[in-house]
Amino acid sequence: MTYPQQKPFITGETHIRPGIQFLVFAGIFVLILFVGNIIGVGIASWAFSFKEVMDVVDMKLDSPHTSTILWILQTAGTTLPILAAPIVFAGLVMNSAPDYLKVTFRFSWKLLPVVLVVMFMAFPAIEFLSNINQQMVLPTWLKWMRESEDNAAKLMDAMLTMKTIWAVIFDVIFIALVPAIVEELMFRGALQTIFIRWTKNVHAAVWITAILFSAFHMEFFGFLPRLLLGVLLGYFVAWSGSIWPAVWGHFINNATDVILTYLYQNRISKTNPDDQHMFNYAGYLVSFVALLALMFYYRKTAASKPPIPVHYGEELD
After folding, report:
1. What is the pLDDT of residue 315?
2. What is the predicted pLDDT for the residue at 6?
3. What is the CA radius of gyration of the chain?
4. At what angle do helices 223-240 and 192-199 cross, to 10 degrees?
5. Closest by Cα among 61, 72, 88 to 37
6. How many alpha carbons lie under 13 Å from residue 127 in its C-beta half-sphere?
7. Would you give the distance in Å from CA 291 to the centre of its chain?
């Protein structure tokens, strides 16, 4: 079958070999990330004090300004660089933003309810992979990874403290929606397009991008479930030609966690979102089978939409 975005070039695009494209993109991202972190520290230090910022960096979270400092550092040092890098690369370097960022709305809207069902059916499978991941034993020289993840969890807990409905809305927007948009632009937009052109194989590109997506979060004990999420999101884009089904799925995953956390924190629900034993083996099996069936249906539905026209390039199967 033909996928909408599997065309090497369109009119006006800068012709750079895909391998070089990846190196250029990586360089742009690292540079913007470095600058963003400096700006974040500068803004937080100006708003409060450099000592308070360094205390937060050193995991001393006693300051009443901890949450605000974390949000400043997160926004300037991570969120904005993830957004800026693919835009700069696609628009300024490659001169082909639509082809790389996949922001078109020309896809079958029937895909959105399918994505909704896929994401909820994926929860048991994600839990199963998470449990496998948790049982893996790190060698002594990698023990720092566990400590790093524990520290990251503490920071996320500080950012996810929600006592009012307004706090929930804020977190749904800035922890669920905004990251979904910027991460999909970077991973399923720019990077997956690069790897499709590099490998000339959609499946290889989806899996390579998913591996990078999971590794980027630097959570060894969450690598496998995030890998599954990345694969699902990758095929959402590969088969539709648009990042928006993936943004929708990404948002559903993140928002569900935010809402469940709020309900649990305020004792409205007894369901702990960190509980990794909510389902049994029958639920895991049903989840994997359902995902295969639903993804097959998603691909069939996406194929019913006429492909996005391009000017040059050979079709890939």
Report:
1. 39
2. 44
3. 20
4. 80
5. 72
6. 22
7. 19
Specify the residue for token string 């979060």.
217
d(CA 152, CA 111): 34
Tokens of 99: 């082809």
113 Cβ partners below 8 Å, 6+ apart? none
77 is written with which tokens? 């040092």
Q: What is the pTM of this model?
A: 0.89
Is residue 157 within 8 Å of residue 232, measured between CB atoms? no
Task: Give the H/E segment covering residue 106.
Answer: none
Q: What is the DSSP letter of 311?
A: S
**DSSP character for 65?**
T
Q: Which two tokens stand for residue 247?
A: 């943004």
With b for 16 or more beta-carbon neighbours within 10 A and e for fewer, the 98-127 pattern comes to: ebbbbbbeebbeebeebbeebbebbbbbbb
SS3 call for 89: helix
Identify the segments of the chain with pLDDT beneath 50: 1-11, 309-317
